[in-house]
Design goal:
The complex is a heterodimer of chains A (324) and B (427).
Chain A lengths: L1 H9 L3 H18 L28 H8 L3 H4 L2 H20 L2 H6 L1 H16 L8 H7 L2 H17 L10 H5 L1 H5 L17 H23 L9 H9 L5 E5 L9 H5 L6 H4 L16 H4 L7 E5 L2 E5 L2 H14 L1
Antiparallel strand pairs in A: 1-2, 2-3
Chain B lengths: L6 H4 L7 H15 L9 H12 L9 E5 L6 H6 L2 E5 L5 H7 L9 H11 L5 H4 L3 E5 L3 H12 L3 E5 L8 H22 L5 H24 L9 H10 L5 H20 L11 E6 L8 H8 L3 E6 L4 H4 L10 H13 L11 H13 L4 E7 L3 H16 L4 E6 L6 H22 L1
Parallel strand pairs in B: 1-2, 1-3, 3-4, 5-6, 5-7, 7-8
The chains are: A mainly alpha (324), B alpha/beta (427).
């Protein structure tokens, strides 16, 4: 019985499963609020606060708000609020780890849809060179630091209050996601002050870059996402894990070939057991493209829930070849 | 006097050559010295009989493209409307002819391949070859290129990086493969298209799927299949029509499944299980595998470029357009390759150790052709890695000449005996 279930999962069509789950979660994170779903303010994904029907709020919003404070307050009650928020954020995060990116994030899903459109139109995607990759991947940490320190600067009077929630101002989720509930109001430049004008212009510019970028590069934005950086800092104790058994790996590079995030370690590192890297979005395409029994696996609380198998690999490739 | 005869007159029917006799002799040993060969092996025995003994042609109007190493992607040749045939050769008679091209202490395989290509009456599928794709792998293959081109063949070099771990190597090789894919149009007259490449990928994947099933069936203990037959099967992939080959392997797999259910034993129940690695056994030079199995061992797995290394690793594609398919193919032909020409051999060690465990191996036999420096140089590091895991290894230096048979069989028998003794001590 257990074996039948296992085989069903391991030989299943991950692409289809992921497509439907992503669609379902997209609907949840855009319209869930209308169905009175409330998941709180500390979600580890872009459940954008500017969306009317949001079922909860992206943790980066309260984080930026709460950081607008003075250092004295930060080490008293304001600090407590931040820690409580971080606690709930961590609880949410620890269960699903970075699968929030690969399955739940509405902005991620949109990028996958743009990729699907590009594929249909027959355009080839671009990749970064290894040098570019190494440099660009640091940007997300810089953004994470900025979205913490700029609000602190506001609190200390260094920056204007018009700089409030600085990351949201440049985040493409703010401009794009509300469109899905018919709200185009974020697609404007705010001329009420110089700072706001600069920030919203920057937001518009980045939205444009996002749309073009996602068309030519798979999961273009995730590379720079400060949420992804924050995730990675907390990912070690998470319950959902991506594991590799290097002794079974032939380094054939099939996993790397299908990786949207160009993570080389997935193929080349045969030492690490935990093979999650900071750019990983836990989409598990690598596991589904691995032809070595058990070389890659998805674990939940130490139990394998999705393993690489030859049979599953062959089935999925045959299907891809026929429909791709 | 002989030299003055026009070339055409030197041509003799293949079945009257030394090669045909050599092939006949080995085929008899493989077939007749062993009882209980699977019925499905008849396809392969007959194939060798027809091609290697009788010299009957396999191909008619197809554009046959010769390849010299496992790094040449078959998928691309099929996609361009050609048929790849591996030219690596195992005839002692050709080895002797080839000696005039290479220093005396060179690798038999390279010499035999040169001798075969120089020969005017050779294997029927080789006779049709005009284009030879030669990846710049070891020194000897590399230098053989210019000699082959002097013989009148069109040689297409593929540049192989000497290091395979770096990003530079990946990009360099991707470019080599990309250029090769583009140049195939000049060889076959057909351009690779998305559809043709997808079909080629599916066809090769089907063959690999059949191979993997066979490979997995060899894990059975006691063994249901002998290694000498496994080498015959994979070696046939060098030249057989791929769809026929796949069908024949699937038929063999079905028979072996039957054997598995019947708890059939192809060798003695307690026969030491051997993992074969190193220089590739290529028909008719199957003498070492045959000696091992005649001495009471059974080869359950191998790590050689005439078998596992050629067929095991399968290409995965994310987006099925020509560019990404070619990139995936390129990575797959370089990154997992355990050819000893590369600087490091960590992958080979890991693969051997994993295979030894997976297949319940008692000992490893490492064949190195005399003159194959790279395999000889890797010998001690592989021996050490295996020793650390408690896996005994026998290093055998050999060539294509039949002279060392006596000496070899003594050493192999001793090794097999020692493995048996070790097993008894364990119990």
């Amino acid at each position: 019985m257990l074996k039948t279930v296992k085989d069903f999962v391991n030989h299943g069509d991950l692409r289809r499963f992921r497509f439907w789950l992503q669609l379902l979660l997209f609907i949840l994170f855009i319209y869930g609020g209308y169905a009175a779903i409330q998941l709180g303010d500390n979600l580890p994904t872009f459940s954008c606060t500017y969306v009317d029907g949001k079922p909860g709020t992206c943790f980066l919003v309260p984080l930026q708000h709460r950081m607008v404070t003075t250092p004295e307050k930060l080490f008293s009650y304001a600090g407590m609020a931040i820690l409580t928020g971080l606690f709930y954020f961590t609880l949410w995060f620890l269960v699903f780890n970075k699968a929030w990116c690969g399955y739940a994030c509405p902005l991620g899903t949109i990028q996958d849809w743009i990729t699907a459109l590009r594929k249909k139109l027959g355009f080839q995607y671009v990749t970064y060179s290894w040098e570019q990759f190494k440099k660009l991947k640091k940007i997300k940490y810089a953004l994470l630091l900025l979205l913490i320190f700029i609000p602190m600067g506001i609190g200390s009077g260094i920056f204007s209050h018009d700089m409030g929630v600085p990351f949201c101002m440049i985040c493409p989720a703010r401009t794009i996601l509300p469109i899905f509930s018919g709200d185009f109001s974020q697609l404007t430049i705010d001329f009420s002050s110089k700072t706001k004008m600069i920030m919203t212009s920057l937001g518009m510019l980045i939205t444009g870059i996002f749309l073009v970028g996602a068309f030519v590069k798979k999961r273009f934005f995730c590379f720079f996402c400060p949420m992804s950086a924050l995730h990675y800092l907390l990912s070690k104790p998470a319950l959902l894990k991506l594991k590799k058994d290097g002794s079974k790996c032939t380094k054939c590079g099939d996993c790397y070939s299908v990786c949207d995030m160009q993570i080389k370690d997935i193929a080349d590192d045969v030492e690490s057991r935990n093979i999650l890297r900071d750019d990983c979005i836990m989409c598990f395409k690598c596991v589904s493209a691995c032809p070595e029994e058990g070389a890659l696996e998805v674990d939940f609380m130490g139990q394998p829930i999705f393993e690489a198998t030859v049979q599953g690999y062959i089935k999925r490739m045959q299907k891809g070849n026929k429909s791709g | 006097m002989d030299n003055e005869l026009p070339v055409e007159e030197k041509k003799v029917a293949f079945n009257r050559t030394h090669q045909a006799i050599e092939a006949e002799r080995m085929l008899r040993r493989i077939k007749d010295d062993f009882p209980d060969n699977p019925d499905a092996m008849d396809y392969f025995y007959d194939l060798y009989e027809q091609v290697y003994c009788e010299g009957r042609p396999l191909y008619d109007t197809e554009k046959v493209v010769g390849t010299m190493c496992v790094q040449v992607p078959d998928e691309l040749i099929y996609a361009a409307g050609g048929v790849p045939v591996r030219l690596c050769n195992g005839f002692y008679a050709d080895d002797q002819v080839g000696a005039e091209f290479m220093p005396a202490k060179s690798c038999s395989l390279v010499k035999a391949t040169l001798g075969m290509l120089d020969n005017k009456s050779t294997l029927p599928f080789v006779n049709k070859v005009k284009d030879v794709v030669l990846p710049a792998t070891c020194d000897q293959k590399r230098k053989a290129g210019s000699m082959i081109s002097e013989m009148g063949y069109e040689v297409h070099n593929m540049e192989v990086p000497p290091v395979k771990e770096s990003e530079e190597a990946r990009l360099y090789w991707r470019r080599s493969v990309h250029n090769f894919a583009a140049s195939l149009k000049e060889i076959t007259g057909k351009k690779i298209t998305k559809t043709s490449l997808k079909e080629a990928l599916a066809m090769v994947a089907e063959a690999q799927k059949a191979y993997r099933t066979l490979h997995a069936l060899r894990k059975e203990a006691p063994s249901i299949f002998l290694g000498k037959d496994a080498f015959m099967v994979t070696n046939a992939y060098f030249f057989d029509k791929i769809e026929n080959w796949t069908a024949a392997v699937n038929k063999l797999n079905a028979e072996l499944e039957q054997r598995k259910e019947e708890k059939f034993s192809a060798a003695q129940r307690r026969a030491p299980r051997i993992l074969f690695t190193g220089s590739p056994p290529i028909f008719p030079n199957i003498k070492l595998p045959v000696l091992i199995e005649q001495s009471g061992g059974v080869i359950v797995a191998d790590e050689t470029c005439s078998s596992n290394r050629m067929l095991y690793d399968m290409v995965a594609v994310d987006e099925w357009n020509v560019e990404s398919m070619v990139a995936s193919i390129a990575d797959n032909y370089l990154k997992p390759c355990t050819c000893p020409i590369f600087t490091k051999n960590d992958d080979r060690k890991r693969k051997l150790i994993h295979m030894a465990k997976e297949f319940g191996v008692d000992g490893v036999v490492y064949q190195a052709f005399s003159g194959c420096q790279v395999y000889q140089m890797e010998h001690s590091s592989i021996a050490k890695a295996l020793q650390a895991e408690g896996i005994p290894m026998l290093f055998v230096e050999s060539d294509y000449s039949p002279d060392d048979m006596g000496q070899l069989s003594t050493r192999i028998e001793a090794f097999i005996e020692s493995l048996k003794a070790k097993r008894r001590r364990k119990r």
